[in-house]
Amino acid sequence: RHPRAAAGVGKDDTLAEVRAAGAAASRALRGLADDRIDAVVVLMDGRELTAARAAELGLVGHFEEHLASIRAA
């Protein structure tokens, strides 16, 4: 469903969305106190990670998974 909804979205709108989401994520992470960023979280699959590592995997890692298709587009 998502690819169909985004099919007509242009490069400028896509970049604006990525920048806005990145800024929101940055604000959220900067707002975490040190004890919260170092806290251990349990993921749905049972893995335990610090909040910092979960954010790194979720934000950076997820984006990198899509980078090749983004560049191709």
Distance between the termini: 18 Å
> Which band does the percent of strand residues land in?
5-15%
Topology pattern, helix = H, strand = E: HHHEEH
What class do helices, strands and sheet pairing give? mainly alpha
Largest sheet, in brief, is: 2 strands, antiparallel
Radius of gyration: 15 Å
Give an account of the 3D structure.
The protein is mainly alpha-helical. Helix content is 70%, strand content 8%. It has a two-stranded antiparallel ribbon with strand order 1-2.
Short characterization:
The protein contains four helices and two strands, in the order αααββα. It is mainly alpha-helical. A hairpin with a 5-residue loop joins β1 and β2.
List the helices and strands and how they pair.
Elements: H1 2-6, H2 11-30, H3 34-37, E1 40-42, E2 48-50, H4 51-72
Antiparallel strand pairs: 1-2
Features:
73 residues; two-stranded antiparallel ribbon; 2 strands
